[in-house]
Each structure stands twice: as C-alpha cells, then as structure tokens.
Amino acid sequence: MRKLGIDYGDARTGIAITDQLNITVQGLETIKNNGSDKVILKRLDELLEQYEIDTIIVGKPINMNGTESERTIKTEQFIHKLKCKYNKMKIETVDERLTTVAAQRTMNFLDVNKNKKKNIVDTISAVYILETYINKIKN
C-alpha cells in the first residue's frame, strides 16, 4: 500500500506518492484548486481509485516559533474534511516548517526556470512532507 503526501494551499496543492514498498517518494502533481477544496477532494477520489493508498499525510504549517497561524487553522479544517470523507483511511500530519524553503533551494540547485517554479514548488514540498513521514516511521 502506498502513502500520499499533501502540501495544502489556497491556490495550489502539491501531491506526492510513495512506491508500493514505501521506499521512494515521487512528486505526482500540483492541483490548481483556486480556493476550492472540492477540486482537491475530487482529484483525491481519482487518485485513490488509481492507486492503492492506505495513508494520507498532510503537511501542517506551524510558525518557526512553534505557534499556529491562520494557515494552520485552514489546513486543520481541510484535514477535518479529509477525515470525514475518508473515514476508513489513516490521516496523519507532519510539521512542514521549511519544506517550501527546501523546495526553493532544490529548484535553484537544479536551475529550474523561474516561470516553472510556481507550478512545481508545491509538488516538491509534498515530496519533502512525505519523506519526513517515511523517515519518521522507519526510525
């Protein structure tokens, strides 16, 4: 069974997935949701039908000082929707602090075109979120 990682955002949501043995993580896509959770949930339905997924991991945006923000509250509301809709599935969260920074560094290192960065930063962040979770359960 695979794991699915989500970097939730208002405009775009990054999606990553593990291989069947949960050894590697790859970026899957960025969903352009423009503030609509329905768009994300519809796409998740399709992904859950396409892949055998047993766990969804959502990055939880926490401030650097450990406090919650408005973004944290919005993400928790989205997680609540996931738990209601996919109530038989395991839904986990991981601290996503600095994942976007790490994604930006990766894109800079790879010399990704400035115009393409906006479209893939969320997917790369989802990869880091899922890798964090995979490393946590391995240890």
Describe the structure.
- The protein is of the alpha/beta class.
- The protein has a single domain (2-138), classed as Nucleotidyltransferase, domain 5 (2-Layer Sandwich), CATH 3.30.420.
- It is 47% helix and 25% strand.
- It has helices spanning 37-50, 70-85, 99-109, 114-138, and strands at 2-7, 12-18, 25-32, 53-60, 90-95.
- A five-stranded mixed β-sheet has the order 3-2-1-4-5, sandwiched between helices.
- Helix 2 links the parallel strand 4 (53-60) and strand 5 (90-95).
- Helix 3 packs across helix 4 (114-138).
- The longest helix has 25 residues, at 114-138.
- The chain is globular, with a radius of gyration of 14 Å.
CATH topology: the name is Nucleotidyltransferase, domain 5
> Average pLDDT across residues?
88
The poorly predicted ranges are none
According to CATH, the homologous superfamily is YqgF/RNase H-like domain
Would you report the number of β strands? Answer: 5
Tell me, what's the shape?
globular
The CATH class designation is Alpha Beta
**Distance between the terminal alpha carbons, to the nearest Å?**
19 Å
Helix content: 40-55%
Radius of gyration: 14 Å
